[in-house]
Each structure stands twice: as structure tokens, then as C-alpha cells.
């Protein structure tokens, strides 16, 4: 057997009183692709950050290619050959791709000036070696899509001669087609001998990304398996305590399984769905915004979940933002409860009974300096105000009610929002939207980057809300999720609606084809 | 991001929207007061005030006399009003800052003087005119920032010069004298129960109103939301531009009020009265714990910072330390207080 490229023994890390990792061992060989799995807070990211030199372990030792490895800073880990590509690409947006590829190691001329010719030449060669278009090199980084930015960052790790490449939930921002492209690149790197450590929450891609699956739970190594057996992995991640998590996860991951409630089997969704006799809450009639989307027609009924699917940039979010009053339609019209509806701001939309959960939790959602309570009540604040003053009793009642209803795990309403896990932060934002008691709820990527158990809970919450008569419009890039949730799926391709599927005839294959603009 | 699970245990705090700094519990410190002292910027400021008072009382035997303590506060009224306005503008985020407060004060002071002396109107009507002038000048800043989209630093730098020269032009380059109407001078020169009138009747009420508004009103909550994340605020129905414009108006109005206090104290309106005061106001706001990036800070912090600065200035004056040292000391205190908080923060990790 070859020398392991990376060995870690007995890695322990504490943050204050919390033990993030305890005695974790991991051995990775060159060219190996290893998936690191676990629920939120299991210690995956902490372990990766220790490899990447962001944190120093409190105990334990590491070896890189047989040599002791104790990076004191990210730069040291990078120089030693451990490169990380994080979930959201960290790039220099105002610089060109080729400049981004050469940050920190520009080829010099004799007197120290940067050899631009060589920068360009090397960049094109590098991109093309990964099967990417060489013409990309001259583009400005911020003109690239997130997927392309990620590709550039991966190309950069090749230039860094990375021996170990850490990918932290790389596909959570990608559409399925873009993910395929990523898998191709990863395969190529691994074939060339780079070891790949891969964090993901998506079961459907496991068999594509790894040949070994390592599971962490509560900071400790639970074990590893060589087959992506979903049941077995879930059992390892969840700790085998009861079956509820497993069932929720199944529900989240698989469009065909029936919803199972802890209290007993719930009726299947198809039985329960009112087909077409409830009130039409939202109707879009030839809605267009120049340059973003064109001629969108759809209806959302009370008690119905309508899905909007499409590749990133297809115009899904823009449709929601138009309904939420943030974009002006250039033609077509919107009807709410059958009446013309022309919101001019989010405030107008909220007042009309429309709520929106934005797609980017951190950038569009959280007030990161504020507490759980004031984050939750933000959208409903209007209704909690009298004489310009916030009625605190009503506010805390609202916060308590929704925290309980959505099972938000927080130290209390006064805990900083940043002290919550990502999944619970997302629940706070969901509570923010639904606490306005909207007639129409629009959810943009409601389960992005969330652990399996929380995802199942959020699915169940959405289901409960629709049962109570809410009309829900869901935008998601995760096709299995969308198919599990939606009664009707509309597909957008480059701003145009290409297909509409009913629950019964929506198969992943057909929806994906429509999203990619391929005739079915 | 779901993986950035901060493992920060949380202190049970009093649950105010106005106390948004995340606090960390000290390892081993189970007493709430012990961690408060090190975690809470207000507690730190209070400690510094006591320390400064102690040192000053050693330097000068007069320092701790009640009449001196009260007289000291007189100097704080004008600066305090400007610093409170500045705090709100900075809290509102988006690079918010009001460099024009000093000039706004000068210009509204001249407007006040012209109304009261040249037009001969009742001084109390002139007070109203001056405050309204301040609000309007603030509105210009606010609209430049929110509607035109000029970065606050540039917009208010521009109006700093505009208002300063307008004040000089309007006043004809000289001080406006001749306020001797009965009653008016009372505001700046008298005291009630030993407390200077401008502190008791203007600064403290202004502080009280602002503290209440920031803690209890929806507007106050919206200021923190806008300062913390303007995109999220707008998506929760907050009218970001309106909130920010209001903050500049409030800052301008407070500067107008400050100009009246100044004029009633000196019994003249100087067209250069506010020169240089904008930077002192910013210093006090930041010293009080307002994050320059917005969203974090409290008006009570600004009030404590003002107290600290007033204690230092008047103590040094009593001790016969030259004026030239006082400004330097203010800078040193600002940097030291930030350093201290960083060091304490690091020791806890």
C-alpha cells in the first residue's frame, strides 16, 4: 500500500466548554475520494478547518506524506499542499480570472514586475487542462456564475499543486448540471493522484463523489463504510436513536416515499391534496421583467404547494422577487385573490399577505448582530406595533409560539442569532415569514445547506402550513426535495417557462430535461 | 452556512433590541456581574469614569466638590447632543456618518441669531426656526445619501464645507451679538438645583427620548435592522431609505438644538461655533461602543463616553494641564479603550 497522503490521529478540539472533536483518526491515501458525513454540528467543518490550518487541534497529531504536519495558519497548510474550496466561493471579484489564479505567486520579470504574458499563458493552459474554456481567463471574476467561480478556485488548487483537496458542500450552490461538471473535474483530479475530502448533505450524489464514507457524530468518529448505503449512513449519523430521524430523512430525500409522522402514519399527500377546488391565491398572467424572465403564467391555490424549478440564473428567484414587490413587471399582471396586485415594496407585499423566505440566509436573511427573538419577529413587527412602540408582551408571545411550533433549538429569545446552528437559523427565518400569517408563502431554497433531520422537519412544517390553507410557492435547486414537496412543478429555462408537471407525472428525468431546455 | 456552528453559550441578557453585542461567558466566572464587567462596554466605560474621577481628585482638591461636578456637565451639553445624533447615523449602517454636524450647528446658530436679533423675533420662535433649519440641513444629507446614492463620507464632507461657508456668508463673517432678551440667557447660564439648565432641560430629556425610542419603538428596531443587514431589512418590509434619511434629519435637528444651547451660553452666534466638533462627536460615539459599520451600539454607551470625556477635560483643566494635551488624551483614551476590550476578549478565548 502507498504512503498515506494525510494521516490524523487522536484529533481533539474544544471551544470553551463544548467539545467539537474528540479523538478523531483519519487516514487518506493519494487519489482517494472520501466523503465526510454527519449532521450539523457533528464536527465535519471543524475537522476540515484543522486540516486547512484555520484551527490548531488541542490534542492529536497529523502527518502529510509521512512528514509531521502542524499548520499554524491557512497559508502554511496551503503551502504544504492542503487546499480548501469553501461553500461560497471566496474570490477577488474585481480582478480577472487569471489574476485570481495567480494571487500570491505571480511570475516575475527580472526587476520584480509581474510577467503578464506568462500569467495569461499559464492560466489558459491550466483552465484547458481541466476541460474548461481558456477564454474564461480574461473575464472579470464577478462576471462569472457561482459555479464558474468555484471551477476557477478548483483550478487554483491545481496550480497550488494540492495533494489534498477539501470541498465543503460544493454542490449546495450548484444546479444538477453544474454539479455534474464539478464531479467530472473532481474525478480528473483524483485520477491524477489528488486526495479529495468531500463534505455533503446530498445523498443522491454520494456514489458520484466518493468511494469511502466516513461518519462523524457529536465530534467523534462513528465509523466508515465503502458503499453509499443510505439506510446505514443515516443510522450511523443519527445514532440509531429511534427511527423518526430516519423516516424524516427518507421523506426529505425520496420523492416516492410516503410521509411518515411520529404520531403514526399520516395520509399520503396525493390523497390529501385538494385538486382544483380551492381558491386561487396568486395568479401570474404573462408576467415579464425585461432581461430576467418572460411570459410566466402560473396559479397557486390555497392549500397547494407549487414548485418552481430551473438552473441557477433561470429567473426563479426573480419571479418571487417580483411578486414580493422588489422588481417591477414590464408586462403582464399579477392577481392576488383575484384582484389586481401591484406591490411597490416588500412592505406592500407583506401588508397584502405575501411572505418571502430569501434564498441566501446570511446575506438576505439574518440580522447577525441581533437576538433570536428580534430576528424572528422582524417581519411581523408591523402588526405588533401600537403608537409606534413595539408591544413587547405580544412580541415575546409570538416568538415563543413560533419557536415551539417550529421546534427551534435556542438558549432563549435573547440568545444571539449567531449562536444557533445553520438549520435552526433557517427555522428562525421560516418562522419570521410564517409569523406574518401570510396567505401566500414563497420559499426560496428553504433547505439549502441544512442537515438531513432539519430538512425533514422543514418539509413537515411546510406540509402542515399548507394543510392549514396557506398557498406555498417553493423554489429549489434540489430536485428530490422539490418533487417531494410540490403538487405542481413549473420549470423555467433562461427566463421562459418550458414545462409544467403535475405530481403524478413529474419524474426527475423529465423535469431536469425541461430545465436544461432539452425537449422531452 | 450551516457548519459555522458557533459554540457560544449565551448569558441571559435583559433582552433589549439595543444590546445586540454577542456576549461570551467567562470560563470559570459563574457570577453574572464578573462577566458583565468584562463583556459589557458600558461597564468598562463606567470603570474608566471612576478611575478618571479618582485620578482627577488626586490632581486637584476642587475636583470632587459638588459645585464643580455639576458645573462640569455644562461643557458636555453641546457635544452630547451632537454625539447622540452621530450615534444614530452610525448605527443606521451603510457607512453612515455625519461629518457635517459641526457646520450644521454653525449654520443653524447663525439662522438662530438672524431670526432673534436681525428680525427681532421672540427668541423661543427663533429656537424653533434653528431646530427646523437643522432638520432640513440633515435632510439634505439624508437625501444625498439615500436618493442620490453619494457615499455618506463624501456627501457629508461636501455639506461640511457648504454649510460652513454658508454660515460665514449669512453672518457676514462676524459674530451675531445682542441676545439679551430676558429669560433666554437662563437656558445657557443658569442652573436648577445646581444642575446647569441646558443639561437638565435639553441634554437629559433628549437622551431619555432617544434611549426610549431606540429601545422600545419600532423605528428604533428598524434602525438596528438596517444597520445590521440592510438587504434583510428591506426584505422584511423596512423602508431602508426612509429610516436612514430620518437619522440624518435627527442628527441635524440635534445640531440645531446644540446651536441654540451654545448661543444662549455665550450670548452670541458664532459662524464658526461648530468647527471641529464633528470629529469629537464621532469620537464619543465610537468610544461609547458604536460599531463604525453600524448595527451595534447603544445611546447609553454614548452618554457614558460623553461623561468620561467631560470628566477628563474638566479635571485636566482644573489641574492646570494645558489645552493642547487634552485633545491628545482623548485620542489616547479612544485607542486604549478599544485595545483593552480586545485584550480582555483575547484572554477569554
From TrEMBL, chain B:
Keyword terms, alphabetized: Cell inner membrane, Cell membrane, Membrane, Transmembrane, Transmembrane helix, Transport
Gene Ontology MF: a single term: transmembrane transporter activity
GO CC annotation terms, alphabetical: plasma membrane
Tagged with keyword Nucleus: no
Transmembrane feature ranges: 43-63, 69-92, 99-119, 125-148, 160-179, 191-213, 247-267, 279-296, 303-319, 325-344
Subcellular locations according to the entry: Cell membrane
Name the UniProt record assigns to this protein: Autoinducer 2 import system permease protein LsrD
Lineage: Bacteria, Bacillati, Actinomycetota, Actinomycetes, Micrococcales
